[in-house]
Amino acid sequence: MLIPVILIVTVVIPLLFMAYRAATRSKAAGEHPATEDAATIARTGQEFADAEAYQAKWREEEKRHQPDTLL
């Protein structure tokens, strides 16, 4: 009865912790690649700004059409 508890504490928990750390490091490395330069960052920012402008335009159009539709 005591041996499984000792195995879990000494082996399984540290392995789970190391797997978690490896997963978070690889995720962080994938989100911000080292080859990202200033032009790429600026282009990404511009794409987000364009998307926000499109979304605002879409919301305004939906407000105009909202009274026509009833659930």
Question: How would you describe what is shown here?
Answer:
There is one protein chain. By secondary structure, this protein is mainly α. It is 82% helix and 0% strand. The longest helix is centred in the N-terminal third of the chain and has 30 residues.
Compact description:
The chain has 71 residues and is mostly helical.
> SSE order in H/E notation?
HH
Low-pLDDT residue intervals, each spanning 5 or more residues: none
- Number of strand elements: 0
Give the overall shape, derived from the CA principal axes. elongated
Mean of the pLDDT scores?
A: 85
Q: Main sheet, how many strands, which sense, barrel?
A: none
Report the radius of gyration as a whole number of Å: 25 Å
Helicity range? over 70%
Class derived from helix and strand content: mainly alpha
Q: What distance lies between the first and last C-alpha atoms, to the nearest angstrom?
A: 61 Å
Number of helices: 2
User: What amount of the residues lies in strands?
Assistant: under 5%
Task: Supply database-style keywords.
0% strand
Topology:
Blueprint lengths: L1 H30 L6 H28 L6
